[in-house]
Design goal:
heterodimer; A: Udp-n-acetylmuramoylalanyl-d-glutamate--2,6- Diaminopimelate Ligase, Chain: A, domain 1; 5-stranded mixed β-sheet; two-stranded antiparallel sheet; B: Heat Shock Protein 90; 5-stranded antiparallel β-sheet; 34% helix
């Protein structure tokens, strides 16, 4: 069967993703949201969703914490500064990165969890 | 009768890196107090948007969160320039944030609308050249 809820670790195993920090690996991924404007993300992203973005500053960690997303997936090979990753680790925010552009990334994630 | 629990935070106006610290702390405290997830989420988002606004527009200020049994009250107070046209500022998409703020992912003109959407009451008290105080409540249950 294709689709269904999976954990962040399972997602990581099945897709071209690399973990930048994984403090909460067993978190269920319940869906997805994509966007770079943080207020839009806060207005729409739901707890448990994977958040796909290319935004890479420390505010991403704050928004991910407040929205309680299961992971942040950075598209197009974007990474976070070590300082920011340290913050993410301490706030239990999973951060992954992928070489894929956001659209393709969403498609592949969507195929897996739908 | 015991006094309601109150948290006070100073918001550093210089610093986008620490912006959000107060809301994350409030989120943690409310979780420890056992409030429902959805209430915590609304309080945290409403407060974070307020914090960001204070950093963008007002060089910081302070926030006070009071925990009542039936509601959470958030007061955000700054000595910034004030809001010229509140009705316009409340419109989704309207922003006066400078360009460099937008490159950080803010300034989409969704801050005040998000605060309104995530609170049950919101009162804006603003005076040009004096500052802005926003009082929001989020009902529990």
């Amino acid at each position: 069967m294709i689709g269904g809820i999976m954990t962040v670790t399972e997602l990581l195993d099945k897709l071209p993703l690399r973990a930048l920090c994984l403090p909460d690996p067993d978190r269920d991924v319940t869906g997805g949201y994509t966007g770079d404007l943080l207020s839009w993300v806060m207005g729409s992203a739901q707890p448990g969703q994977a958040w796909v973005t290319i935004m890479s500053n420390v505010n991403v960690v704050a928004v991910a914490t407040l929205c309680d997303v299961s992971c942040v997936i950075l598209a197009q090979g974007v990474t976070l500064e070590p300082e920011v990753l340290k913050t993410a680790e301490s706030k239990l925010v999973n951060v992954l990165t992928s070489p894929l552009p956001a659209f393709e990334l969403c498609l592949t994630v969507g195929e897996l969890i739908r | 009768m015991t006094a309601p629990l109150r948290f006070h935070y100073d918001i550093d106006g210089e610093n986008f890196t620490s912006a959000g610290e107060a809301s994350v702390k409030v989120k943690k405290s409310l979780r420890q107090l056992g409030f429902p997830q959805e209430v915590i989420r609304r309080v945290a988002i409403a407060m974070y948007e307020g914090e960001i606004n204070m950093v963008i527009h007002a060089e910081g200020g302070w926030a006070e969160v009071t925990v009542y049994p039936d509601r959470i009250e958030i007061v955000l107070c700054d000595r910034g320039p004030g809001i010229k046209d509140v009705e316009l500022a409340m419109q989704a998409g309207y922003s006066t944030a400078p360009e460099q703020i937008r490159s950080l992912g803010f300034g989409a003109g969704m801050g005040l609308p998000n605060m309104k959407a995530n609170s049950d009451t919101m009162v804006i008290d603003t005076k040009i050249g004096v500052g802005t105080t926003i009082t929001m409540t989020v009902n529990v249950g």
